[in-house]
Amino acid sequence: MKKTLDEHAERFSEAASTYDDEQDSAAYCMCVRDVVTHAAPTSRDTVLDLGTGTGAIAFELTSTADRVIGRDISTGMLEQAQTKANVEHVENISFAEGRFREPNIDSDTDIDIITSNFAMHHLSDDEKRDAIAVISALEPRRFVLGDVMFFGSPNPEEPFYDPSVDDPATVGTLVDALTDAGFAITDVEFVHEQAGVLVAEQ
């Protein structure tokens, strides 16, 4: 049985203090690079980073965006992210609890770009659809998703993910969910047979 979101939150909170040091796989680093590159915010843009973790994507975007908002389910990860913001004196970034389907955004906040990296695969396919519908309703002009996703049939002997806690989708499933929610796919980046980046606009 897959873990609940609360169990995921607790698991990531426990790992928060060492999380940054452990994210050194080539595929993860390439996804970070591609998400940042495709997000491409301008000085007028507000970016929402869902599943922000300790802020790997969010901090990269602060140099060009007007404002970056990070949301995560893990208090431990958010504490690490806020500590980094304080130490580095980054003022155009903020962090708070939020979920894909309940992102905790003020109704008067206009979101221009939404990013997410290596987080949505914890949701079931139906939950991913619900999350993408919520993302679409925020009316960003661009959504950039880096994640564990299947470009073909994964080799069960060499999983890029943990079947006991992760629930990645095929690229086709994600593309269908995005287009059904009103997005147009503008780019697909193959990073690994089990990881990639999708760029969607509306």
Q: Can you give a write-up of this model?
A:
- This protein has a single domain (5-201), classed as Vaccinia Virus protein VP39 (Rossmann fold).
- Strands 1, 2, 3, 4, 5, 6, 7 and 8 form an 8-stranded mixed beta sheet that branches.
- With 202 residues, the chain is an alpha/beta fold.
- It is globular, with a radius of gyration of 16 Å.
- The model has no long low-confidence stretch (mean pLDDT 90).
- It starts with a helix and ends with a strand.
- The chain is built from 6 helices and 8 strands.
- Helices cover 37% and strands 24% of the residues.
- The longest helix has 18 residues, at 5-22.
- This is Methylase involved in ubiquinone/menaquinone biosynthesis.
Comma- or semicolon-separated keywords:
alpha/beta, 202 residues
Quick gist of this model?
This protein has 202 residues and is of the alpha/beta class. 37% of the residues lie in helices and 24% in strands.
Gyration radius over CA: 16 Å
Overall spatial form: globular
Distance between the termini: 35 Å
The main sheet comes to:
8 strands, mixed
What topology emerges from the helices and strands here?
Elements: H1 5-22, H2 26-39, E1 46-50, H3 56-61, E2 67-72, H4 75-88, E3 93-97, E4 113-117, H5 125-137, E5 142-150, E6 169-170, H6 171-180, E7 184-192, E8 195-201
Parallel strand pairs: 1-2, 1-4, 2-3, 4-5, 5-6
Antiparallel strand pairs: 5-8, 7-8
Helix pairs in contact: 1-4, 5-6
